[in-house]
Design brief:
This is YD repeat protein. With 117 residues, the protein is mostly beta strands. The model has no long low-confidence stretch (mean pLDDT 88).
């Protein structure tokens, strides 16, 4: 049996993303944009659309619609994730970025500009 015949005979199992593990404030997106943190989510997806996607973003928001964090899913694995903390004025003061098995922590001043922490 060759590879094509084997694929037809035994197609790979379709993996569906399990949205039940996500908090109630999770929403799904195709991508994000921006160089300033926090990034902005673009192109929303309905949870049902995740079945047909290999790459998507799971984003979490607070009651003021501020982005608390996200994880970019690529073939079932987390490629990159961000977590944000805000001050009472709604300015991002801390960001945690996970990528390539490394975590980077960034701090911002009261104007949202990078600071030493």
């Amino acid at each position: 049996m060759n590879d094509t015949e084997d694929y037809i005979e035994n197609p790979p199992e379709e993996k569906n993303y399990d949205t039940s593990q996500d908090p109630e404030n999770a929403r799904y997106f195709v991508s994000y944009t921006g160089v300033k943190l926090p990034v902005r989510m673009i192109n929303p997806l309905e949870p049902e659309a995740l079945r047909n996607r290999n790459t998507f973003i799971v984003a979490y928001f607070d009651e003021q619609e501020r982005l608390l964090g996200f994880k970019k899913m690529v073939y079932g694995e987390i490629e990159i994730s961000h977590k944000y903390e805000y001050d009472t004025a709604g300015i991002v003061r801390r960001a945690e970025i996970f990528m390539d098995d490394d975590t980077t922590e960034l701090f911002f001043d009261e104007n949202g500009a990078p600071s030493a922490g």
